[in-house]
Amino acid sequence: MTFVTSPLSRLTDLLQSVLERQVPATGLGAFRIGYGLVALQEILFLIHFRPLIFDELPYLDQGPPMIAFFLPLWALAALGLTLGWHTRLCAAVNYLFWVLFTAFTPMWRDFDGGFDQMMISSGLLLIFLPSERALSLDRLRLALRYSVPGHRYEPPRTVPVWAYYAPLLITLAPLYFDSAIHKLFSEHWRNGLGPWLPSSHPYYISPLDLSWLLDLEWLQKAIGYTVIGFQFVFPFLFWHPRFRVPLLVLGVLFHGGITISFNIYPFGLGMLVHYFLMVPLSWWRRLGEWIRLPEPRLKVYYDGLCPLCLRTVIVVEHFDIRRAVRFLDLQTHAAAEAALADLSEDQLLTDLYAVDAQGRRYQGVDTYIQILEALGYTRPLGWLLRLPGIHPLARRLYRRIADSRRRCDAACLAPPNLEPGPLAQAWQDFLGSPRRKAARLARVLVFLGLLQLNSTVHYGLLHRLGWEGILGPVAPVSNLLLSFSHAFFGITPHALYLADHFKGYETLFALTWLDAQGREHWLPFVNREGRLLTPNWGRVHSMWANVAVTPRLSAYRLEKFATRVIAFYGTRLGLDLERTRFRLKAKSIRMPARWEKGLRDWNLRQPWHDAGELVWKHDRGRLELWEPLPVRNAYSPPRNP
Question: Which residues cross the membrane (predicted)?
Answer without folding.
Answer: 33-54, 66-85, 92-108, 120-137, 158-177, 218-238, 245-265
